[in-house]
Amino acid sequence: MDGNVPAGPLPSAAFVERRRSATQSHWSRVELEQLAQIRAGSAEMTPTWGRSLGLSLARPELQRSVRAGNVLRLWSTIFHHEPYEGLYEMSAPTSVIDTFVSHSWRTPGWSRALTLAWHLSLTRLVLVAAIVPLIWETFAIWFDIELTTWFLPQGSDGMIKIPIGAAPIVVPLVFAITMLSVGWCTASLYLDRCCMCQHDTELMRASIHQLGAYIARSKHFLILWDKTYCSRLWCMYEVASFLALHPVGHLHLVPITSVLPVLALWIFHTLATIGIAYVGAQIIFARWFMSLCQEYLPNPAAQVALLFVLASSILCVCYACVCWFVYDQVLTHMSAIEKLHQQLGSFAVANLQCAVEQDRAVVEKEIKRLFGSCQKFESVVRNQVAPQLVKDVGVLTIPYRFIILSVTSHIWFGIDCLSLMEWFSPDWWHMVVLFGGVVFSGDVLGMYAMSLIARSLHPIGKDDVSLDQSRWRKGIMASIVCYASFNGLLIAISSPNIPLFFSIPASVVFASFSYLLFRFNTSANRFNTSANSWRVAKASSVSRFVVDFLFDRSSAIDGPGLM
């Protein structure tokens, strides 16, 4: 597979020459020309294609798929190790498979089902997050739906008013319903548990022999990734086989360890947004509190400082409710990432594990037929598969796009307020700074700081993260302080006492820095374990300073080094 081949169609001659100089040098020109036509959409992959490579369908009726909704509704049965009658009958013969699902059976069934549901619902969730608020705001403006108002002091006699509508309540409900609707998804999946006959040995062997053919005829390839995945022989064979025939953009990897913290953060931010919007309007953003500030703290700088202290204190209390769980999940995710680097850095077929040792000879035979030799297969994994996996998993923490999706409730809240205000007025711009900074900077930087703190307090170069209780508590406390401080600072910058010519550029700089920070740590061409370790070690010096400042150094950093 040539990693530099674009996803779109290529001229047949150019495609053939690139492939013949890459890993498919042992393929015939006719086969490569046919593959080029198939990728360009000018031909279909017939059952007889790839006969010399073992990719033809000797028994086309065994190529089956199952509806995604059926899999998710019966997940407790399908993702269970015990045999169960009726699973094979859930699937049906098909000529084309939408998505080939690859997973490790060593991973708990509930986590694989949750990750699959997350992937299948992700596109519709993004659409709902973008479209539903706009539809609701059109409705809210037409009927003037305003439930309460925020009042922010501006010096001794000025103020701004921020109207609050019903979007923080209505839109999350639609979002949650959309997540549950994935149980009726009609996408066709190839899932071994349903598409291979578990109770007929002959049919099972025939399906295993045609596994490469099924992969070749799948449009997309989904990896439910955890730290055991890249140590499994069948799993890595499936990945490399798909990339040998398809563009790299058709491979999708979802880290199992990133889904739980994202869902926890989404629930937390949704509830926090509702609380801050409506309860906050009766306390720190109430008219009576604004009057007290103007009477006893007329100085604009003092009002900004008070807003920072109050916002940070409230966020500390709120985030403490969920931080312990997110911190624990981040530790698990970071341990899995480190394991991935170790597995791919020293990848060799001989080191891979196989549940049934008799299958090893079968898989190695298929590898040699498809790639020419095991050494060439290992080269494909190290040089082309590894960068793609690391790009999707990340180097330090959960992916940026997942963090943004977890704080969409803040976006809905901001759009709701902006739609009810006078457009492009000074008050309107202060609100833009508030929700833009918190969404695209505060939570992103808070999550990144948590990852750095976790890495500096816990040794990562082990199979399991060391969870010394003293360090665990200190890591949580430092993460809470950093998260609350980042968001409190951004909320203070949005104060009406801060001139717009300063607050708007500052918000843009923070958001750009946060995005580039994550891009820097998930760059596909940075797959180098020592380079990544050096880069993270430099970044972790900041987190060490934070921990040293908050706690006694002798008790906070008393264990093994960074790696």
Explained architecture:
The protein has 563 residues and is α/β, with parallel strands linked by helices. The protein contains 23 helices and eight strands. The strands form two sheets. A six-stranded mixed β-sheet has the order 2-1-6-3-7-8, with helices on both faces. It has a two-stranded antiparallel ribbon with strand order 4-5. Helix 19 runs antiparallel to helix 20. The longest helix is centred in the middle third of the chain and has 46 residues, at 300-345. It is elongated and about 85 Å long. Mean pLDDT is 78; it is low at 1-23, 461-466, 524-547 and 551-563.
Summarize the structure.
This protein is of the alpha/beta class and 563 residues long. It is 63% helix and 8% strand.
Q: Provide the β-strand percentage band.
A: 5-15%
Radius of gyration computed on alpha carbons = 27 Å
The biggest sheet amounts to:
6 strands, mixed
Number of helices: 23
Helix/strand structural class: alpha/beta
DSSP helix fraction: 55-70%
* CA-based shape: elongated
- Unreliable runs, pLDDT <50, ≥5 residues? 1-23, 461-466, 524-547, 551-563
Mean pLDDT: 78
